Amino acid sequence: MAKVEYYDVILKPVVTEKSMNEMSEKKYTFLVHPEANKTMIKNAVEKMFDGAKVKKVNTQNLDGKTRRRNTNKGISTGKTAKTKKAVVTLTESSKDIEIFQGL
Hints:
The chain is α+β, with helices and mostly antiparallel strands. It has a single domain (about 5-65, about 80-90), classed as RRM (RNA recognition motif) domain (Alpha-Beta Plaits). The chain has 3 helices and 6 strands, in the order H-E-H-E-H-E-E-E-E. It has a 4-stranded antiparallel beta sheet. A two-stranded antiparallel sheet has the order 4-5. The longest helix is centred in the middle third of the chain and has 11 residues, at about 40-50. About 15% of the residues are buried.
């Protein structure tokens, strides 16, 4: 496993209708590094966002999607990269994460 620093753990926020509705319950969804564990994700969120105190982290490994394409030699198939998603729940006394406020 490569050395993963806290700024490498969180790749980008997930902006979907479901994730936006969960923000009222202080649940935030991020795409994270595939080799990151729950402790690394918790430390990264607390270091990157001031005033954020993590209560719980749920992770989900997602397989890559199968893609097909036509070439001059016929149809070839492949898969996109695997990803990992994390739902971070903050404590009630924690400040909200400001990155989502303008969306």
